[in-house]
Design goal:
Order of helices and strands: HHHHHHHHHHHHHHHHH
Strand content: under 5%
Shape: flat
Structural class: mainly alpha
Mean pLDDT: 83
Number of strands: 0
Low-confidence stretches: 123-127, 133-139
Oligomer: single chain
Number of helices: 17
Amino acid sequence: MTENELTHLQTHLQQLLNKQNYADLFKELAKCSFLQGYMTFYLEFTGGSFKTDALFVQRFKTFLNGAFEEEREKLHIQLDETILKKEQEKARLDKEISEKKKIVEALNQQIAEAKTQLASLPASYSVNEASKNLSAAISDNEVEAQAWFWKSKTLPNHSDKILVYDKAIACKPDFAEAYFWRGKVKKALRKHQEAITDFTKAIEYKPDFAEAYFERGCTKSIYLSRYQESLADFTQAILINPKHGNAYFSRGLAKQNLTMYQEAIIDYQQHLQIRKTDSTAWEGIAECYSMLQDKQNTLKYLAEAIKLYPNYKQQSKKNENFEWLWEDTDFKRLVG
């Protein structure tokens, strides 16, 4: 629902309320999923019935305004995230275009040099020999490796991608990006140890490759449960790129699995400094506080997670990290 649609709906409901047309009002409320929770709470607040005296009608207007304000806030958060993703995608495409332009420039330079050499050859020099030399000038260097690398972006099949990355690496054995992307494909194919080997080669040829450290850490932590070993990779990614929010989050998750709850909380909070609307980080902090038997902070951070992702209400009732709170009155009130 857009903001204009929200405003139109709010005005319509206010008009029905002002006209005391309660039958149509409740029909409209029943259509709006985000208002049903407010309606239930209001009825509980008023003793289970809708009262039509001026005081309660005014209170109901206040409830409606609160519901719409919260829905608008969620909408703005979603729009902010969408804009951020679009900007990141634009930056990625701009980078790809810039790199492709460099390849074209390199090719043009190679061709120009080859033509210059061809023009200086004696008349007896055969056209076939000249063609072979031109082909060699273009193929036996980094340009061919880049051509294979970019060809991979057009292939949907993982196995075909690996073959193309193999060719790129054969042309340029120190091609860090090709090792990195081949590692990502192998990770997707669940060839985890081979993926780690490729990420390691990428780091060997490009020591400041933060994403290679991050992906190697994720492979060790998420897929192989090598949590302790993954910490060094996440830490190195952060040292190279202090704004790498996902590295903070993943290091926090690894520490949580190692029962290093206080340290995990610090990493999750660092992640939230970069991505404050990530509900999984809020929930992760709540889980850590729960394992530390800190009820107050558990409920505080869980409430924030639920604001961003209401499904946590139901999930929390089955999340064993909160098991000791399942029968707690405050916990029940929070998760419904």
